[in-house]
Each structure stands twice: as structure tokens, then as C-alpha cells.
Amino acid sequence: MTPSGLPLYNPEADLSLFSNPAFRPTGLQRLGLVGVAVGVAACVVALASGLGAAHPLAFGVTALLGLGGGGVLYALGGLAHPAGVRTEGTMVSSNEARGAVGWAIGLALTGLYVVLYFWPAGLAGLIPLADPLSRLLRDQPATLDNGGQWFLYTTLYTLAVAVMGVRALVRYRHSRYHQLRTLSVVFFQTVIAFALPFFLVAIQQPELYLHYTWPLDYDLFFPWKIAELRAEGTLGVAMLIWGVVMIAVVTPVLTFFFGKRWYCSWVCGCGGLAETAGDPYRHLADTSTAAWKVERWMVHGILAVITAATVLLGVAAVAEVGWLDAVAGTVGWIYGLLIGSIFAGVVGVGFYPIFGTRMWCRFGCPMAAILGLQQRFFSRFRITTNGGQCISCGQCSAYCEMGIDVKAYAQRGQNIVRASCVGCGICATVCPRGVLRLENGADTSGASRAGVPVNNLILDLDILPDA
Ligand code: SF4
Ligand code: SF4
Predict the structure, then answer these.
(1) How far is the CA of 263 from the centre of ligand 1 (A)?
(2) Which domains does the chain have, with CATH numbers?
(3) Among the four 233, 238, 377, 400, which has the fewest Cβ within 10 Å?
(4) Is the predicted pLDDT of residue 443 greater than 70, yes or no?
(5) Ligand 2 centroid to residue 395 C-alpha, Å
(6) Which amino acid residue places its CA nearest to atom 5 of ligand 1?
(7) Residues near 3 by Cβ (< 8 Å), separated by ≥ 6?
(8) Whose CA is nearest to atom 8 of ligand 1?
(9) How far apart are CA 197 and CA 137, in angstroms?
(10) pLDDT reported for residue 43
(11) How far apart are CA 360 and CA 375, in angstroms?
């Protein structure tokens, strides 16, 4: 025991969930953990025994209620703790500091993604658990033949965002900004990415995801996808037009006024999972300069590859050049496998407890690359710093999920205008001195982006709306 009464951290007790001396679950939280354990047990038994196929309703309800209900109870137990980022014990937690628990969760998640993408038959015992919900929502059973594994996956993904969204609402109950953006990502995941597409399937319409567009939906403008959407009739064509409007009009306009956060921290499903389920791991991002250099080359390189593949496929289709179609098609296929499946899923989510929550957003997402370029060169969004108040504690840099060295800017009193910043606002929340502030107002001094040609042009033309 320390003089303050906290038990000393014992690395040999690393396998214990409670190895973090500051982690003291309340009674409600312990009850919640029991519920989660029951949900996990139902999944494991169904997977190993095949009993889920014989009793889909019993196993499905037990699994979803255990995971969902238990998770919500655990989250509500957090009301007994103070609001805000809990920094005590984070760096010695087995779960949150790459200890044995963190590695075990990471390997389990990665294994599940590998099976999902490359050996879905391995999930045959688990898919029936989603069958009752599948019949209710999309009016068809959940089987391997009709992509039942993807319905199961989307259900669990949505459950994770919703349950951990409750945790975020409890944890950040002192901040209106975090409350609103949490409600927003939960809404977009549960309604726009889950209920709506499956309802459309139930009424024999195409399964549409209104919040995704190219390049995140990387094959949206591939010739065969365009043909497929056109064949689906009015809704398919409308989706195609919406995709063009979203990337060409909605994205630049909203990014100009709000920065890339409008998408990355308020709408996107990947960002939604990172901001909710990934919240305990946000401090694990690599903050080194080397990581920053790799990040810039990778994310923009991936954008270049998918842009080239899309353009070349279009040219090949119009000009009917067979070899070009074959080459670009192969590039598109490799992109789908390496980037769309392995990077976005297996590494991006599977390694949350090892590399932090925004691996995909930072190093791989082509949508983030476009939004970042717009944010860096053509947006009013910036984080202003009151350098005189900074005590160089480094909390802001430690909890930045994008690995930005926020402290370095704060010490210099310099505005933060970084392409990678997703505007989560945690740096401002965790700062004990109120140094940081996320702002959208017109920066008529031009100080935020001094020297950026397009910014100088805007100032010269005097076309900025008032703040
Ligand atoms: S700089 Fe702040 S707002 Fe931007 S990603 Fe990092 S923590 Fe979030
Ligand atoms: S958290 Fe605040 S006080 Fe600490 S280094 Fe960052 S800006 Fe400075």
C-alpha cells in the first residue's frame, strides 16, 4: 500500500483486469462485467458447439442482452466517478498500456477479423445468433449464403458503438461538445449505417449507405459498380448522384466551415468506433516525428493509388482499352484486399489496444487524406492556444489519438492547423489550464495559415463570411 491507500502496482499480477491500482469498479460496474461475461460465454458456446443453430433465439438474445445490457450497466457505473478523462493509472493498466490483457484483446479482435474476411465458414456456429434480428430487420435469414456473417458483424459493430457511446456520454457528461458528437456518431451508426440499409433490403431496394462516398467507398465509381447502381433503378442512380454531390460539394463546403471533424468525429463509422469503443486506447498513438513522416507518405500515397485506379478504369471503359482495364482492375482488386480489408479491418480495428484507435484514419484512409488537404489549406478550423497558461504537462500530446504533439504548439502559443487533426477535442478537454480551444470563426488576420497561397487569395478577395 502507498501512503495514500492505493495498492502498489504489481506487474506479476498483470493478467488481472484490476491490475490498474486506480481502477476500482463500482458494484454496478461489477454487475455489468458479469453481464458481458455471460454474453461472451453465449457466443463461445454457440461457436464451439453449434447449439446456436438449434436455439438461435435463446442464444442470440442471451448474447446481445449480455453484451449490450452488461456494457450499459458498466458504463452507467461510471457516474460514480468524476467526469472527464481519467488519467490516473492509465499508463500502468494491463488493458490500456499494452499489457497482457491489451495484447489478448488485440489478438482476439485481429483473429476474428481474419476469420471474417478470409474464412467466414469458421463463423458458422455464430451466424445463427443474428438470425432472429435479421428476419426482423431485413426480412431474410442470416446464413453464410446471403452474407449473414456481415449482418452479424454490423450488428456487433453497431452494438459496440452504442454501448461505448453510453460510456462516452457518462465520461464526458461535463462537456456539451463531447455529448453532441457522441450522440451524432451513435445516430449515424445505428440509423444510417444499420437500420436504414437493412430496412431498404426488407423492401427489396438496394442496400445503401448514405454517409459513405468515394474514396472511402473505394469502388463507387468503378464502371461495373456504376452499371450495377444504374440497373437498380431510381434509388441506385440517386445514390450515384448523391456520391458525386457529397465528395464534390458537401465535403469541401462543410470542411471549409468546420474542418474535417464534421466527418471524422461526427459522421464516419470508423471514427465513431474510434471515439466510443476506442476511447480507452487513444493515448497509444505513436507521437514520433518518424510516424508523422510515414503517415504523410502513406495516407496520400493510398489516395493517389485509388484515384489512379478509378480514373484509369473509367478511361479504359470509355475507350474500350482491354489491357488498361485489366491492369487498373487488378490494382483495384489488390487495393480492396490490402487496404479495404486487411488495413481497415484487421489492422485498423484489431490492433486498437496496441497502436491506438486511429491507425486506419491516420495512415490509411483516403477520405481522411482529402479532408486533411482541405482542412490544411482551405478551412477556417484551427485550435488556438493561449501559450502563456501552458505548464508543459504534456497531457494534450499524450491523449491526442492522431499522435499530434499538441504541447509543442501550445508552448509556442501557435495555432494548430494540422491536416491529420480530427477535431475530437480531447486535447482541450484534458488540458488542466484551459489553453486550447477549437475554433471555426473567420480568421481575418490570416495568422492560422499565413503563407498558404489559397488562404492569401481568399483574404485578398475578402470573401470570408463573418465569424
Ligand atoms: S489535436 Fe486535439 S482535437 Fe486534434 S486530433 Fe489531437 S486531440 Fe483531437
Ligand atoms: S495539456 Fe495544457 S498545460 Fe499541459 S502541455 Fe498541453 S496545453 Fe500545456
Answers:
(1) 14
(2) 24-81+119-207 (no CATH), 381-461 (3.30.70.20)
(3) 233
(4) yes
(5) 6
(6) 421
(7) none
(8) 424
(9) 10
(10) 96
(11) 18
Ligand 1 proximity of 274 Cβ (cutoff 6 Å): no
H helices present in 129-259, as ranges = 131-138, 148-171, 176-187, 196-202, 223-231, 234-245, 251-258
Is-contact 435 410, C-beta < 8 A?
yes
Closest-CA residue, ligand 1 atom 1, reads: 421
Residue 256: CB partners within 8 Å, gap ≥ 6?
A: 374, 378, 379, 380
Q: Tens of pLDDT along 395-418?
A: 999 999 999 999 999 999 999 999
Ligand 1 neighbourhood includes 436 CB (under 6 angstroms): no
Q: Which of 134, 42, 206 is nearest to 143 (CA)?
A: 134
Q: In the numeric block, which cell numbers belong to residue 8?
A: 502498489
Q: Ligand 1 centroid vs 416 CA: distance in angstroms?
A: 9
Distance 433 CA to ligand 2 centre (A): 7
* Contact between 71 and 32 (Cβ < 8 Å): yes
Per-residue confidence (pLDDT) for residue 322, from 0 to 100:
78
* Per-residue confidence (pLDDT) for residue 348, from 0 to 100: 81
341 or 210: whose pLDDT is higher?
210
Instruction: Please state the rounded mean pLDDT for residues 17-43.
Output: 85
Least confident of 23-37, 174-188, 228-242, 340-354: 340-354
pLDDT of residue 325 exceeding 90: no
Residue-wise pLDDT tens digits, 153-165: 999 999 999 999 9
Residues near 126 by Cβ (< 8 Å), separated by ≥ 6?
Answer: 43, 46, 47, 52, 152
> For a substitution probing ligand 2, which of 431, 436, 437, 438 has the most ligand atoms within 8 Å of its CB?
431
Residues lining ligand 2, CB < 6 A? Answer: 390-396, 406-407, 410, 431, 433, 435-436
ipTM: 0.93
Pocket probe for ligand 1: among 264, 400, 431, the residue whose CB has the most ligand atoms within 8 Å is 400
Question: 427: closest CA among 382, 368, 383?
Answer: 383
CA angle 410, 412, 415 (to 5 degrees): 60
